[in-house]
Amino acid sequence: RMRVGIIHVGAPAGGMNATTRAAVAYCLSRGHTPVALHNGFPGLCRHHDDEPVGSVREVQWLDAENWASKGGSEIGTNRGLPSEDIEKTAWCFEHYRIDALFLVGGFEAFKSLSELRKARRDFDAFKIPMVILPATVSNNVPGTEYSIGSDTCLNALIDYCDAIKQSASASRRRVFVVETQGGASGYVATIAGLSIGALAVYIPEEGISLKMLAADIEHLKRSFAKDKGQTRAGKIILRNEKASKTYTTEIIANMIREESGGRFESRFAVPGHVQQGGTPSPMDRVRAVRFGVKSLQHLETYVGKSKDEIAADPMSASVIGIRGAK
């Protein structure tokens, strides 16, 4: 029987709670003890011995039972990495007898796992099986094509853009420049752009150049010159928040307004954290549960192995994910 540490790292994403609930249910049914490490690694290091309640708590079924449909993260999450205080992290793992670690989070969780694995040379406490379940709206975790939370984010973003488009089509001849999240990955902007029929999508992989902007503004002028009736409805341009430091969403909207010669107008909109969505989408919840159980089954394969055997196995620090259809 193991004491399984469950920790959330990075920004909140839809499905984190569903996956934690599934993990807790699986642990309890198999006789393991699920231990929630609240508020990420900084929470673990700073508040593990707080009175009356510390940040390291065993999870009972009644605590987690109603988490299935909750968005965000019930046990708290932040972007802090273990390297901020690796000695304290190791001490906590030893002190609370953590036998396996289940990380849920985005790119920061991936970095944390990498740091813990490298720290095995100096600390025996990290010679335990660790698995990360990718959960981030950005879908930018190496080793997988799908991160939990990205589907919820796309649903929220598409609803938002449809509402904006409606407002634009009522007033006719308006362009909206919408800023999307997604970190340094253009996934969210690209897929949302295809889904809502955006006129252009600016992503960090390609960056933004004056030439591109000029070409897109020319295209706008042409399409507004020929429009009749309903085709005059609003047009949308999507821009990932990190696509360019210079060409901000507002500046692009102003350039379009300036170049339009009064034929059409432009506005900018920033949905911000609306994109994290309310209730996680069905796809995120189904995959959260499926991945959560599979991750714990993987951790269970290390029961009874010595610390050095675990450290020697490259699969003892791994990412669960989807490649193609597997």
UniProtKB/TrEMBL annotation:
Its cofactor is Mg(2+). It is found in: Cytoplasm. GO terms for molecular function: 6-phosphofructokinase activity. Its EC number is 2.7.1.11. It is an enzyme of class 2 (transferase). It catalyses: beta-D-fructose 6-phosphate + ATP = beta-D-fructose 1,6-bisphosphate + ADP + H(+). PROSITE patterns: PHOSPHOFRUCTOKINASE. Pathway: Carbohydrate degradation; glycolysis; D-glyceraldehyde 3-phosphate and glycerone phosphate from D-glucose: step 3/4. The keyword Cytoplasm applies. Residues 3-298 form the Phosphofructokinase domain. Keywords: Allosteric enzyme, ATP-binding, Cytoplasm, Glycolysis, Kinase, Magnesium, Metal-binding, Nucleotide-binding, Transferase. PANTHER family: ATP-DEPENDENT 6-PHOSPHOFRUCTOKINASE, PHOSPHOFRUCTOKINASE. This is 6-phosphofructokinase.
